[in-house]
């Protein structure tokens, strides 16, 4: 199967990220970080909703009980179904003036992972933290410049992450409780041909990565070999996720951040949300699961 990515909705964002599929409503959610919004698009009705926030939402997850868990610049919050902030989980463990939240999502236990992006870029000052069912926050990895690419293998053996500015994808072994071990360098990328950004896993253990500045997305085998590549009509894809009734639809967010008016005129679909039909199903994201009070 070889298709071309096509836009799915009349929308052009500044920095769309964190596409998230909701099987219950057959809806796609995503954040536009720079616009401080979460968007919802219901595929079979075409209905659109926008949830507004006072700060950038780097990443989020749907809650089992409704609403979102959102990683905003100053900290992580729980929201009501309408997006209203209801409970602060924690402050940003980084300095919020220097690092906003970026990529994140849930593991199969419904725990929420959120990484940060270290804006000064003078050293690897970002981190990856996790919120568990009791709303306890733990920093699980450091020595990161820009946290991205979070995904968990279907066999629950591996956590994958990328560090986009450092051109690297990491793989971390997980024990039977999902606790991470020693992070390993899994794949590095030469400069000038795309950097690994947001990602998703399929049921065959392959890792799908949006290659920022690379005009394409790629599917990598468990050994790190390129199995498939799909070209995009825009320079900077930011993340991918699986969805659709059979989980064989790939959704792709893209950005127009820091692009000149001339480049946007030449690549007017920059910032669009694309869809691509693929031959293998993806691993579904769990909703954030909280302890019963």
From TrEMBL:
GO terms for molecular function: calcium ion binding; gluconolactonase activity. A divalent metal cation binds at residues 17, 148, 197. The active site is at residue 197. Pfam families: SGL (PF08450). It comes from the Bacteria. Belongs to the SMP-30/CGR1 family. This is SMP-30/gluconolactonase/LRE family protein. It comes from Kluyvera ascorbata.
């Amino acid at each position: 199967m070889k298709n071309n990515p096509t836009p799915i909705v009349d929308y052009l964002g500044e920095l769309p990220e964190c596409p998230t599929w909701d099987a219950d409503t057959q809806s796609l959610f995503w954040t536009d970080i720079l616009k401080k919004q979460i968007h919802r698009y219901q595929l079979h009705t075409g209905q659109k909703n926008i949830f507004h926030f006072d700060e950038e939402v780097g990443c989020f997850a749907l809650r089992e009980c409704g609403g979102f868990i959102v990683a905003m610049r100053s900290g992580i919050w729980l929201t009501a179904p309408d997006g209203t902030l209801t409970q602060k989980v924690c402050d940003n463990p980084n300095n919020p003036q220097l690092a906003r939240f970026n990529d994140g999502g849930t593991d199969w236990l419904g725990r929420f992972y959120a990484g940060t992006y270290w804006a000064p870029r003078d050293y690897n000052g970002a981190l990856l933290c996790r919120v568990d069912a009791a709303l306890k926050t733990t920093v699980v990895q450091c020595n990161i410049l820009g946290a991205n690419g979070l995904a968990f293998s279907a066999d629950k053996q591996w956590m994958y992450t990328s560090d986009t500015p450092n051109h690297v994808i990491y793989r971390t072994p997980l024990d039977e409780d999902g606790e991470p071990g020693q992070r390993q360098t899994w794949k590095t990328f030469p400069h000038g041909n795309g950097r690994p950004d947001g990602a998703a896993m399929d049921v065959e253990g392959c890792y799908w990565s949006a290659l920022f500045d690379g005009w394409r997305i790629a599917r990598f085998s468990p050994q790190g070999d390129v199995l498939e590549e799909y070209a995009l009509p825009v320079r900077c894809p930011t993340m991918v996720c699986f969805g659709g009734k059979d989980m064989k639809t790939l959704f792709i967010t893209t950005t127009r951040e820091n692009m000149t008016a001339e480049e946007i005129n030449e690549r007017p679909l920059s910032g669009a949300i694309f869809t691509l039909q693929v031959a293998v199903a993806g691993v579904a994201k769990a909703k954030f699961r909280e302890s019963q009070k």
